Structure formats: structure tokens, C-alpha cells
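Query structure, 142 C-alpha cells:
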């Protein structure tokens, strides 16, 4: 992924809906805030974070929800009070709003997300390249 070739970073347009793509790896989490212009999704902002040692021990679904919560909070200035689309390649999270999780950590995070208005959309891993790359960006930093 090259950030200097089309589609390049765009200024946010508050009159258009935002799309948040997130992903998690065993080492980090990544998020991209996007907006559509025609058929192209243009990035508005990028973010990634290396996982803490205790977070590396989370189950896959926990790391994926952590990426969502972290991404939403990272871009809250854009997302608070507006409806946005959350795109994830982790399909069990499609039911994030409706499911009662037995896992206390995920239940707590789902309560944090209740103050936001979003629709979860499952996408193919091949459509989540940017967030996937960002979540692994720190894997090779030593």
C-alpha cells in the first residue's frame, strides 16, 4: 500500500458518511477512516498501535473488538453524533449490537460502543488491505 498514489488522503466532508475499517494481528491493531467519492473509498486518516504484552494474549475475537473500540475512540471527533459504517473482515462481529457475549471484556467494550451509531458491515479480507497492513506494520519493528 502506498499513501502517495491514488486514492490519496482527503479532507473529511461532514456531509458524507464515514467508513471505519479496523483489523487486528497478534502484534498490533490498525484503523482507517474513509469516505466514498464515487466508487472509490478515500482515506481521511490512518492509525495503528502496537499491542501491550497482556493484549497479545487476548483471543482473536477480543483483539478484533479491541481494534474496533480503539479505532472508534481514536476517530471519535469525526464519529460522535453521526451514523457511520464499521467494516470488519471478522464476520462474527456482524452481530456486535445484538449478541450478549459471555466474555466480560467484550461485553464491557460493547457497552462503550453503545454511545455511537454505526452499522457493522462484513467485508472480505482482500477489501480490508489498509487496516490489515497497519495492524501488521509493527510486526517487523523488532
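Result returned for the query:
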Amino acid at each position: 500500500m502506498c499513501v502517495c498514489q491514488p486514492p490519496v488522503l482527503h479532507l473529511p466532508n461532514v456531509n458524507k458518511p464515514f467508513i471505519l475499517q479496523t483489523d487486528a494481528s497478534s502484534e498490533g491493531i490498525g484503523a482507517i477512516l474513509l469516505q466514498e467519492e464515487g466508487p472509490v473509498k478515500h482515506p481521511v486518516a490512518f492509525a495503528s498501535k502496537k499491542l501491550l504484552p497482556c493484549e497479545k494474549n487476548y483471543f482473536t475475537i477480543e483483539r478484533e473488538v479491541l481494534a474496533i473500540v480503539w479505532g472508534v475512540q481514536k476517530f471519535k471527533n469525526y464519529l460522535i453524533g453521526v451514523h457511520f459504517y464499521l467494516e470488519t473482515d471478522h464476520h462474527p462481529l456482524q452481530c456486535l449490537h445484538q449478541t450478549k457475549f459471555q466474555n466480560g471484556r467484550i461485553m464491557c467494550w460493547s457497552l462503550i460502543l453503545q454511545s455511537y451509531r454505526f452499522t457493522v458491515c462484513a467485508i472480505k479480507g482482500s477489501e480490508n488491505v489498509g487496516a490489515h497492513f497497519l495492524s501488521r506494520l509493527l510486526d517487523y519493528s523488532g
